[in-house]
Amino acid sequence: MDRRTLLLGSGLWALGSAACGEPYSPALSALARQGGVLLIRHASTEAGLGDPPGFTLGQCSTQRNLSEAGRAEAQAIGTWFQQQRLPVPTVLSSQWCRCQDTARLAFGSYQDWYALNSTFRDQGQHGPQLQRLRERLRQLPAGQLEVWVTHQVIMTGLTGAYPAMGEGFLVDRAGSLLARGMMQPEA
């Protein structure tokens, strides 16, 4: 792991620890100001894998949702962005409630974007969705930062890396993974 990736990883971990008053690295803030996309896997959820039988998009009661800890993690992400005075003009979210709630609690407002929806267990269209995400990355104006709140399967499809809940990946316009790290402190 190179020094820049190590520093960024510790900066991403600091997103959660900042809410606890612990010191954190300004490395992520500095690189994010140069532009790119911060992919965030939704914050921690209730126990389970995927969604329960009877899942319906748009009906949160049929989905696996954020846990109490996940709601606190999402708020800590927003606090970190405010403390860093890091402007994020665009926040896009999967249409799953756990992603929308992460985006809402962290940033207040967001836009749904189907391309960020889960493709786990053959939901969605994995290949076409990844193609659309890559197109948007290439079209991102230089120096602009966007936040995309999504799922493990989408982040892994784009980067080849497996994120934990609440983990973030900073990628450039070419889709190259610049850094990864936890959004909340280790338990």
UniProtKB/TrEMBL annotation:
Signal peptide residue numbers: none
Domain of life: Bacteria
UniProt cross-references to Pfam families, sorted A to Z: His_Phos_1
Cited SMART domains: PGAM
Annotated InterPro entries: His_Pase_superF_clade-1, His_PPase_superfam
Residue ranges that the Swiss-Prot or TrEMBL entry lists as coiled coil: none
Entry protein name: Histidine phosphatase family protein
Native species: Malikia granosa
Organism lineage string: Bacteria, Pseudomonadati, Pseudomonadota, Betaproteobacteria, Burkholderiales
